[in-house]
Amino acid sequence: MDRHLFDILWEVYRDVDGKKPIQIISSYRSPLPTPCSAAVLQALARFSQHMLGHAMDFFIPDVTA
Fold it and tell me: How distant, in Å, are the alpha carbons of 7, 8, 39 from that of 14?
């Protein structure tokens, strides 16, 4: 995981005045096969910031998007 990603996450948490723990839904995703077609996987993998460790899905309780 890119260490700067955690810095950004902390800045967001502070900016929204988060009070409860951050809930991480997904971060690094493996390039291993999933129930998608090979063509779809190749197209997604080329642009997947999750596979590069540059993206994270999260939510902060009691904070609206």
Answer: 11, 10, 40
